[in-house]
Amino acid sequence: MDLRLPVDIADEYLNNSQKIRIITENWVNNSIFCPNCGNNLTNFENNRPVADFYCKRCSEEYELKSKNGKLTKKIVDGAYNTMIERLNCNNNPNFFFLTYNKQTLYINDFISVPKYFFIDEIIEKRKPLSENAKRAGWIGCNIIINNIPELGKIFYIKNGKVQNRDKVLENWNKTTFIKNTNNMESKGWLLDTLKCIEQIKKNDFCLEELYSFEKNLQRKYPLNNNIHAKLRQQLQILRDKNIIEFIGRGRYRLKNNGEQNK
Questions:
Q1: What tens digit of pLDDT does each residue of 182-227 get?
Q2: Are both 51 and 135 inside the same structural domain?
Q3: For the whole model, what pTM was predicted?
Q4: What CATH number corresponds to the domain at position 40?
C-alpha cells in the first residue's frame, strides 16, 4: 500500500481544500477495501450529501473525513442538527478518518468507525457563527473521537504502519453485535460499559473497579435504580460476544481489544 497521497492528480485545482478532497478520495478509492466484506469500494457521484463511497457487494456506505496532523480527540464535521438527525436514519454512513502530514503528504493514520458507534454524546455542538459571518447563526459540530470505544476504531494504518488486512476484517466483525442491539438506550449501556472498562486502563479488572463509575452512570441513567446489576448484565453480553472473559472471583479480562490496533 502506497502511503503517499497522489498530489499530482489535483494540479489543475487552485483551492487547497478542494485539492485535499480530490487526492484523499482518490487514494481511498484505489487503496481501501470495505471493512465489512473486503470488497473494493466505489465513489459516489460528487456532491452527494451523505456519503463518499459505497460497497457494491454489501451496500455499506462510508463518509471520509481528512485532516492535517495527528488523530486528535475531535474532528470537525458539518451542521449539528443534520448530524443528530442522521444518527437515527437508515442511511447514516460509516466513517473513515484519514490524517496526513502536510509537508510530506504521507498518511499518518487511517481508521474506520462503524455507524452504530455513533450516539448523541459523540457529537459536540459548536457555537453559532457570529452575526457578521456569511452564514450567521449556523451551528456546526465536532465528532469527539475520544468518546468512541477503542473497539469501534478499526485501524488500517496506525502511526504510518499498515495493519494486516485479515485483522481489519476481523476487528470490524467483532463489533457487529452492537449493530443488532435493540434500542439506543441498550446500545448506550454497552458503549458506556466499554468506555468504563477502558478507563480502568488494565486488561484485567474486577467488578469493584467497574462499580466505581456508578455515580457517573446514575447521572446519565437516573431512572435506573440498580446500576450494579445493569453493569453485570453488560459484562455478560460482552463475555458472550468474546470481547471479555471471566477469570474468576469477580475478575474479568479484555480479550485481544488491547492488541487489535497495535
A1: 788 899 999 999 999 999 999 999 999 999 999 999 999 999 999 9
A2: yes
A3: 0.90
A4: 3.40.210.30
- Domain end call among 112, 142, 173: 173
Note whether 147 and 121 are within 8 A (CB). yes
Whether residue 190 is contained in a domain is answered as: yes
Residue range of the domain that includes 71: 7-173
H or E element in which residue 233 lies: helix 227-240
- pLDDT for the residue numbered 89: 77
The owner of cell 457521484 is 45
147 vs 119: CA distance, rounded Å: 10
Q: What are phi and psi of 52, to 5 degrees?
A: -110, -30
pLDDT value of residue 229: 97
| Of 122, 121, 175, nearest in space to 152 by CA | 175
pLDDT under 70 in the chain at which residues?
46-50, 256-262
Question: What cell numbers appear for 117 in the block?
Answer: 458507534
Q: What is the rounded distance in angstroms from the CA atom of residue 95 to the CA atom of residue 165?
A: 18
Residues 123 and 157 placed together within one structural domain of the fold: yes
CA nearest to 25, candidates 110, 93, 82? 110
Residue 233: what are its φ and ψ, rounded to 5°?
Answer: -65, -45
Residue linked to cell 468507525: 113
Residues 66, 99: Cα–Cα separation, whole Å: 6
Residue 134, SS3?
coil
